[in-house]
Specification:
heterodimer; A: mainly alpha; globular; B: mainly alpha; 10 helices
Chain lengths: 213, 264
């Protein structure tokens, strides 16, 4: 397993940029185990096993669902731009990037556990989690850039779907993370898979908070 | 002891930093020796830091000396234990030639150099401790010494990373093919430009790894310092091995900043 994680991070062997068969099973397993480990650590904030279990399921779900929701538009844009023949290599890049996000999140598990054990407040834990997700996402973008480099060298038009992917992916992931909250679990609330008011809009809530409407 | 001193001297002189070894992603020194140097050097500085507790009026105690002799090296080494998985993940992500063991050794080198430099300030800290009873002055003096030794340790780490990723000078980006050139010329020109872009991106890798390492190690190290406090020991307070476990370094920092700015 550790060798697979190393290959995922380094973009070697079956995870290297290119057009070969996508190792879906290995990528899926990496995403489930590594994302699950990070979720478990997050949910243990108030030492509640139930919340840890839910968060262990939700982090891989967040990564997998956000990718699945954005893939159809990504395919359509590639096809419209005449890049259909390179779609397999582009999709490989996107999936490897998601696996890297999961591996980097798993590598942060000791940091999460350490901060929680040192008595950080709930707001501090949520803020830390946000920062770690951001760092893992940037690591994913690094991987995506590595996969896209030969494609862009061949045809600069590939920059369009790559940029579109980033915008759409962030847009969808923020809303999905909002729907799937809580990940850390506020100490005053009972553990739950979703909050009672889960199906609201993160952007509307943000706008109301900022503009006080 | 003599072996430790010789090894520490070799570290400061950069004997571990043979260019060919670093270029091949190898660090030719032992991890246990580096950890031993770090523990010994940290303990020396810890003793000088804890001297304030031994001499402070009212609640003088030798326990502060012993506590700091353990806490100073632990601050650095425990931070490395917590942060290492993520530090290695970012190194592997950049396709570093350093494998698991060599990455650990490189980070231990930086920590050991940092602690050896800190130990070299121990006589100065001890001298000021016996010649002043100003607590804020001692806090500031220790901050300066930690900052100085940390900056030098980071500089060595950055230079080592550059050597690990060393590549030939890039030169300027090749020109695109002239208008009206044949397909083969255009293809070659595009390939040369793509190769140049790839090499430029690779050249940024040490800077990116260094930034990621700095951020992660700094984040964990700040919190580790927070939970291991007190290091000097406020005058007028009884000796405590650890203060009450609450909040984080950043919450404490912003609370103190707010109180300072709002004058509360």
């Amino acid at each position: 397993m550790s060798a697979t994680l190393e290959h995922v991070l380094r973009g070697e062997r079956e995870f290297a940029p290119g057009t070969g068969a996508i190792p879906l099973a290995r990528l899926g397993l990496t995403l489930a185990l590594c994302g699950g480990a990070h979720g478990l650590a997050l949910g243990f904030f108030a030492l509640r096993g139930e919340q840890a279990f839910y968060s262990g399921l939700k982090v891989p779900l967040l990564l997998a669902l956000s990718t699945a929701l954005c893939c159809p538009s990504f395919y359509a844009l590639n096809a419209v731009l005449g890049l259909r023949q390179d779609f397999s290599a582009a999709l490989r890049g996107v999936l490897c990037a998601q696996a890297v996000v999961a591996v980097v999140l798993a590598s942060f598990v000791p940091v999460v556990v350490f901060f929680q054990a040192s008595g950080v407040s709930y707001r501090g834990a949520v803020l830390l989690d946000g920062m770690l997700f951001l760092a893992a996402s940037l690591a994913g973008q690094w991987t995506l850039a590595r996969h896209y480099r030969p494609l862009v060298a061949r045809n600069r038009r590939h920059l369009v779907p790559r940029t579109a992917w980033l915008v759409l992916y962030w847009f969808v992931t923020i809303q999905l993370a909002w729907v799937l909250r809580p990940f850390v679990g506020a100490p005053g609330l009972s553990p739950s898979f979703l909050r009672p008011n889960a199906w609201s809009n993160a952007y509307v809530v943000l706008a109301r908070t900022v503009f006080g409407a | 002891m003599a072996q430790l001193l010789t090894a520490a001297d070799g570290l400061l002189r950069g004997r571990w930093r043979a260019k060919e070894e670093l270029g091949a992603g190898r660090i030719s020194t032992s991890a246990s020796l580096l950890a031993a140097i770090g523990m010994a050097a940290g303990a020396i500085y810890g003793c000088s830091m804890g001297l304030y507790g031994l001499l402070r009026p009212g609640h003088a105690t030798w326990k502060q000396v012993l506590a700091d002799a353990a806490k100073v090296p632990l601050l650095f080494l425990l931070t490395l234990v917590v942060a290492f998985p993520s530090l290695y993940a970012f190194s592997a992500l950049a396709n570093s030639k350093l494998r698991f063991g060599d990455t650990l050794k490189l980070l231990l080198v930086a920590v050991a150099v940092n602690l050896v430099l800190l130990a070299s300030f121990a006589p100065v800290t001890a001298f000021f401790t016996v010649s002043t009873n100003s607590y804020p002055f001692m806090v500031l003096l220790n901050c300066v010494f930690f900052g100085l030794s940390g900056a030098i340790g980071l500089g060595i780490l950055r230079r080592a990373l550059r050597e690990v990723f060393a590549s030939d000078s890039l030169g300027r980006c090749p020109d695109p093919a002239p208008a009206g050139a044949d397909v083969e010329t255009v293809r070659r020109a595009e390939a040369a430009r793509a190769e140049w872009a790839r090499a430029r991106s690779e050249g940024n890798r040490p800077r990116r790894i260094f930034a990621a390492w700095f951020a992660i190690y700094g984040l964990v190290g700040s919190q580790m310092g927070w939970i291991l406090r007190p290091f000097i020991g406020s005058p007028g307070l009884e000796f405590q091995l650890f203060r009450q476990r609450e909040g984080s370094f950043f919450e404490g920092f912003f609370r103190a900043l707010g109180q300072f700015l709002l004058g509360q």
